[in-house]
UniProtKB/TrEMBL annotation:
Higher taxonomy: Eukaryota, Fungi, Dikarya, Basidiomycota, Pucciniomycotina
Residue ranges of every copy of the Histidine-specific methyltransferase SAM-dependent domain listed in the record: 17-58, 116-401
Keyword hit for rRNA-binding: no
Pathway(s) this gene product operates in, as recorded in its UniProt entry: Amino-acid biosynthesis; ergothioneine biosynthesis
Protein name as it appears in the record: Ergothioneine biosynthesis protein 1
Pfam families found in the cross-reference section: DinB_2, FGE-sulfatase, Methyltransf_33
InterPro entries named among the record's database cross-references: CTDL_fold, DinB-like, DinB/YfiT-like, EgtD_Methyltrsf_superfamily, MeTrfase_dom, SAM-dependent_MTases_sf, SUMF_dom, SUMF_sf
Length: 958
């Protein structure tokens, strides 16, 4: 629903309930039909085109059995329909799924289980848009009987719809529409399948009811709706979030909306992304002046509700003023008084101040801010969700170009854990336009219209008790909204204070522990912990003990105390193995470890040790001071380094463990994250790639580039310099900073994709010749079937944590392969892998931290198609990200000038200065933001190492 229609549901400076008497509702319906008003028509077009996909995803089920994989129906803002073909891959010989290998890692088909879906819409309105979703929910319900025993996965068995709105009359109309004839837009196909209910109240009241009655985290879950197998979906359409400032939107999402979410709840939010000032201005000041009438009607409503005669307060006394504030990306609607106005207001209770026969005065030419409508760019939207601790599952836009959509529907959830990617959004005031931009002088010296606003809000709030249209009661149990469980709501105090290299906060540790436990405890079956995922590393069980032991050793050294019992743990778990690929007998120094499984400590012993370490760290943080008298423990620069080191050490091992696990078939999918819907995502990615397939050409750096490499973080200065919150910690190879000049070169705009790499390795093969083993990435599963027809001889699937998926789904992802494999591709293209400094030149214009959409930090559990940079007016290419992989370079990992080994961890870098390891830069989907955002960070692997989440791009000499 449009923000102007719904913002009255919130306690605003001027409650927009004033806009929605019966005549206001009629005017709003007229606005939705105005050609200039794009928000309603654009969102409606998306819902018409994608409601089948969205209906499936609201319930968390696959679209595979409900969609045509080769066609996407698009409806533009004017209602015209057209079919876009997206499935053809001319010239590519392999797009078929692998028949010989199952598409997931389970050994038997999933048992069919039915679930109920409860849909709650905030600000339901007339169902003009929602009807398309409800219709497709009804279709899914009708299919349940047709499929019968053929089902092999979850299916929707029943559905309920709760419409939340302020006006009881509007609710009755909405609910009755479900039972009306087919031409109503909803019709009996919905009414027979979806049971409708109404909730009359504000958003805050409605979300409070959802929390207390529907969420599994509440102790007051109703017996009917809280039963097992119930999934929930909250709809918040029409860019209603645009009536909030960014800081307010984050607060609402994090505190109000988030507490209504549990593991089985998803939210569909519509957001206006338009960044074209002229288009926005016209939408809110249309050529037919319908919006003008709509805003001015508020004066009539206020006068009527306060009992002020029309002769005293009339819409004729005000002008409508609409301005687009480009600096804040919002449209602002004002009422400007034509004359001095004064009137008395009778006694009003509950506003926190005595109001009895108070005189309200409004000065001539005074501007009263009635409405603001923020326009959030795609990056802005992701930033809102990130700071609210929410994850985007999927999105649907009016344009396949990810940079410039007009409107997007975002499906979001509160996942099992969340790494924050952005700094908190600064609060912005809601003052009117600056003096230079105001169309009139804003006289407010003797005005007290804000008191009128306060009075009106009180009257509105007191007149809107929550009411249910059926038998459900609104209960108020005496419990806390913020539980200690892993999916508890995220309060503002939990926002990480760490930058790309400061001391990690306690909240950072808790998030990392949740991620670590998700992988080690929930994704790895207990009976598989002693299995080696790959030959070149320990069994998983070693890392379960290594992480707390490493931290305990370094904390004990700092405080000069004995390591935690049992002492044996420090002997066998201190350091792991990293053998030479070609000669495994050559290996780094490592801890002696048992040969037999029964010689290792028990699982329970290791978990107990882990918990001791976590308790030790928690108590340490509780006692930390910042080097002032009276602190139990002083936070020195050296202690900050120890804490940063053990934090990043655990994060790096989390990623290492994941790339090892992906080579196995014994892991469980990530719990607490909605699985991807590969079919609909593949269609979206195809359209996005086509939209970006213009002649981008190569990125050319035609003149020498001077860059700063590394940062200044000398460990030897820890004892002489005080602790500073602004200090950025790093590893020994990151310091000191130095200036480097890079010769002219050219670079591909995106990494090598799976599709491009397949074309390369198929070159020159006869019909009866398989692909050489050395050319096949370890991220693939390959089967050669010489007896099959040509298009099926070479069959490939891609390994993911949701099982093996068809090549056609992941063809646009960056290929994950060894440095040597990618080097051969680069030479075939007539180029080479870039040097580390060449890649740094590109990353200086396209830092991972520039876009919160960049797929790092478990935004997804898989790569994405890369987003190509675009050439700006200054000739620099910006706005690109690589799809969520590290990038190989041709640079050997070796000591740079003035390198000094770490005093705390001497072998961190120098043990690998062997000429066999190459530098990798950036970060993958499994790299925490703290590491991926720090441009001085350096990763390295043996050039032939095939398992890491890493790709590469091609560079050319200039």
């Amino acid at each position: 629903m449009d923000p102007r229609k719904s913002s009255g549901l919130f306690e605003r400076p001027w409650s927009l309930v004033v806009l929605y008497d019966n005549f206001g509702l009629e005017l709003y319906d007229q606005i939705t039909a105005v050609e200039d008003y794009y928000p309603f028509a654009t969102e409606l077009a998306i819902l018409r085109a994608k409601s089948r996909e969205i209906a499936c995803r609201l319930g968390g089920i696959s679209t595979a059995s409900t969609s045509n994989l080769n066609e996407t129906l698009l409806v533009d803002a004017n209602g015209r329909e057209e079919i876009n073909q997206t499935g053809s891959d001319a010239g590519l010989r392999l797009v078929k799924p692998l028949a010989a290998v199952p598409e997931d890692s389970s050994s038997s088909p999933a048992k069919a289980t039915g679930f109920s879906l409860t849909i709650i819409e905030l600000g339901a309105g007339s169902l003009k848009k929602t009807s398309h979703l409800l219709d497709n929910v009804a279709r899914l319900l009708r299919n349940r009987d047709r499929e019968g025993g053929a089902r092999t996965g979850p299916y929707m068995s029943q559905a309920e719809y709760y419409a939340l709105d302020l006006e009881m009359e509007q609710l009755r109309s909405t609910l009755s529409a479900i039972q009306l004839p087919e031409d109503s837009g909803v019709g009996p196909t919905v009414g027979k399948q979806v049971q409708g209910h109404g909730i009359c109240g504000t958003y805050t009241q409605g979300l409070d009811w959802i929390y207390k009655s529907l969420t599994t985290t509440s102790q007051a879950v109703s017996v009917e709706l809280g039963k097992a197998g119930c999934r929930k979906a909250i709809l918040w359409l029409g860019s209603s979030i645009g009536n909030f400032s960014p800081a307010e939107a984050v607060k609402f999402l994090r505190e109000d909306l988030s507490r209504a979410l549990d593991n089985d709840t998803r939210v569909l939010i519509g957001i206006d992304n338009c960044q074209i000032p002229e288009k926005v201005q016209l939408a809110y000041n249309d050529r037919q002046s319908v919006t003008k009438k709509f805003i001015l009607n508020a004066i009539t409503v206020v006068a009527r509700r306060l009992g002020v005669p029309e002769a005293v307060l009339s819409l004729e006394d005000f002008d409508y003023v609409s301005r687009y504030n480009e600096g804040m990306s919002r449209n602002e609607a004002y009422l400007r008084a034509r004359r001095d106005i004064s009137f008395e207001v009778t006694s009003v209770e509950g506003i926190g101040t005595a109001v009895e026969n108070d005189l309200i005065q409004i000065k001539a030419d005074e501007l009263i801010l009635v409405e603001r409508s923020y326009k959030f760019s795609p990056d802005d939207a992701y930033r809102l969700f990130d700071q609210a601790g929410l994850r985007v599952i999927q999105k649907w836009s009016d344009s396949p170009d990810p940079v410039a959509p007009t409107h997007t529907l975002y499906l979001i959830e509160r996942a099992a854990f969340h790494f924050f990617r952005t700094a908190p959004w600064p609060s912005m005031g809601d003052l009117p336009l600056s003096p230079a931009d105001r169309p009139v002088i804003h006289k407010e010296a003797s005005s007290n219209w804000q008191l009128l606003v306060q009075i009106w809000d009180t009257m509105s709030n007191h007149s809107l008790p929550i009411r249910m249209s059926d038998g459900h009661q609104h209960k108020s149990p005496n419990i806390s909204f913020y539980s200690e469980g892993k999916n508890s709501s995220i309060g503002s105090a939990d926002l990480s204070s760490a930058t790309s290299g400061g001391v990690p906060s306690m909240s950072d540790w808790i998030t990392l522990w949740k991620a670590w436990d998700t992988v080690t405890i929930e994704m790895i079956p207990r009976n598989m912990l002693h299995k080696k995922p790959i030959d070149l590393r320990h069994a998983c069980f070693f890392y379960l003990g290594h992480i707390p032991v490493f931290a305990d050793i370094h904390l004990s050294r700092y405080f000069n105390v004995a390591t935690t019992e049992p002492q044996r743990f420090a002997e066998i778990f201190e350091r792991g193995i990293d053998p030479h690929l070609d000669d495994p007998s050559k290996c780094n120094d490592h801890s002696p470890f048992p040969d037999q499984e029964n010689e290792w400590p028990s699982f329970e012993e290791v978990i107990a040790f882990r918990d001791k370490l976590r308790t030790r760290l928690t108590e340490l943080y509780e006692e930390l001071g910042k080097e002032f008298i009276g602190s139990k423990i002083l936070l020195t620069r050296k202690l900050g380094r120890v804490l940063s080191m053990i934090y990043e050490h655990e994060a790096m091992h989390l990623e290492t463990l994941l790339y090892m696990l992906q080579q196995t078939d014994f892991f469980n999918p990530p719990p607490g994250f909605t699985p991807p819907d590969w079919d609909s995502l593949a269609r979206e990615w195809d359209c996005t790639v086509i939209a970006q397939s213009e002649a981008f050409g190569l990125i050319e750096y035609s003149t020498p580039q001077t860059i700063t490499v590394g940062h200044d973080d000398l460990e030897e200065e820890d004892s002489s310099k005080p602790f500073s919150e602004a200090h950025e910690y790093g590893w020994d190879n990151e310091s000191p900073s130095r200036q480097v000049e890079v010769k002219p070169f050219k670079l591909e705009a995106a990494p090598i994709t799976n599709r491009e790499y397949l074309e390369f390795i198929l070159q020159g093969l006869s019909n009866f010749e398989p692909i050489d083993d050395h050319a096949i990435p370890e991220s693939w599963i390959y089967v050669f079937n010489p007896s099959e027809q040509e298009s099926k001889k070479h069959q490939v699937q891609i390994k993911t944590f949701y099982g093996r998926i068809p090549f056609v789904v992941a063809k646009h992802w960056p290929v994950q392969a060894s440095g040597s494999q990618l080097e051969r591709f680069a030479k075939w293209k007539g180029g080479r892998l870039p040097t580390a400094d060449e890649l740094r030149v590109y990353l200086s214009d396209n830092p991972i931290s520039q876009s919160v959409q960049s797929p790092i930090g478990f935004l997804n559990w898989h790569p994405l198609p890369p987003q190509r940079p675009r050439k700006g007016v200054d000739g620099r290419w910006r706005g690109g990200w690589n799809g969520g992989v590290w990038e190989w370079t041709s640079t050997i990992f070796e000591p740079h000038p003035n390198f000094k080994s770490s005093l705390l961890y001497p072998g961190y870098s120098k043990d690998f200065f062997d000429g066999e390891h190459n530098v990798l830069l950036g970060g993958s989907w499994a790299t925490i933001p703290r590491i991926a955002h720090r441009q001085s960070f350096v990763n390295w692997y043996q050039f032939k190492y095939p398992y890491v989440f890493a790709g590469g791009r091609v560079a050319y000499d200039y």
